[in-house]
């Protein structure tokens, strides 16, 4: 106890503020432990967070896990009035309803507002600022050479 009191007095004299000495000692003592705890927390969050992929022409629209973008069918035109583009992805494990529910929940986090549509209608329309994003969903049943769910995003200027 005497040793600790002696250290507090010396630190207080050094910084010319005896009242601040206990806080400084506590801070210096806890700093390595807090740093290690914070680093472990950040590492755990990074490990738990899956890699998010985005569409090649829509860098602010994530590709749902289980879907693969068909990049050879992606096209985009940038013009003064806004972007015009289309991109497609396919999945053999998700239904159109799964995809619609995912994008209905996720797109608002990227600033898109849902306007209309639904899984039974086969489409969903979202708007953001001066753009409109149309999600089209279908169950290909082998018609397109792929058995599974096909989703297509079309982006247009919102007029």
Draw up the topology in text:
Blueprint: H1 2-14, H2 21-48, E1 53-54, E2 62-63, E3 68-69, E4 75-79, E5 82-91, H3 96-106, E6 113-118, E7 123-128, E8 131-139, E9 149-157
Antiparallel strand pairs: 1-2, 3-5, 4-5, 5-9, 6-7, 7-8, 8-9
Helix pairs in contact: 1-2
Number of structural units classed as domains = 2
**Share of helix among residues?**
25-40%
N/C terminus separation: 76 Å
* Classification by helices and strands: alpha+beta
Beta-strand percent range: 25-35%
Key features of this structure:
single chain; about 160 residues; alpha+beta; 7-stranded antiparallel β-sheet; two-stranded antiparallel ribbon; 3 helices; elongated
Summarize the structure in words.
The protein has 159 residues and is of the alpha+beta class. It has two domains: 2-48; 53-157, no CATH class. It has helices at 2-14, 21-48, 96-106; strands at residues 53-54, 62-63, 68-69, 75-79, 82-91, 113-118, 123-128, 131-139, 149-157. Strands 3, 4, 5, 6, 7, 8 and 9 form a seven-stranded antiparallel beta sheet that branches. Strands 1-2 form a two-stranded antiparallel ribbon. Helix 1 crosses helix 2 (21-48). The longest helix is centred in the first third of the chain and has 28 residues, at 21-48. 18% of the residues are buried. The model is unreliable at 38-46 (pLDDT under 50).
């Amino acid at each position: 106890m005497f040793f600790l009191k002696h250290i507090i007095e010396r630190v207080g004299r050094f910084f010319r503020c005896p009242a601040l000495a206990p806080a400084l000692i506590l801070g210096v003592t806890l700093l390595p432990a807090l740093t290690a705890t914070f680093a472990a927390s950040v590492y755990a969050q990074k490990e738990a967070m899956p890699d998010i992929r985005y569409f090649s022409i829509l860098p602010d629209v994530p590709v749902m896990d289980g879907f693969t973008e068909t990049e050879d069918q992606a096209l985009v035109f940038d013009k003064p009035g806004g972007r015009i583009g289309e991109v497609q992805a396919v999945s053999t494990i998700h239904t159109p309803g799964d995809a619609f529910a995912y994008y209905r929940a996720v797109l608002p986090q990227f600033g898109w507002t849902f306007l209309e549509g639904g899984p039974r209608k086969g489409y969903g329309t979202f708007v953001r600022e001066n753009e409109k994003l149309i999600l089209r969903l279908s169950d290909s049943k082998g018609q397109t050479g792929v058995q599974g769910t096909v989703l297509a995003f079309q982006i247009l200027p919102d007029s």
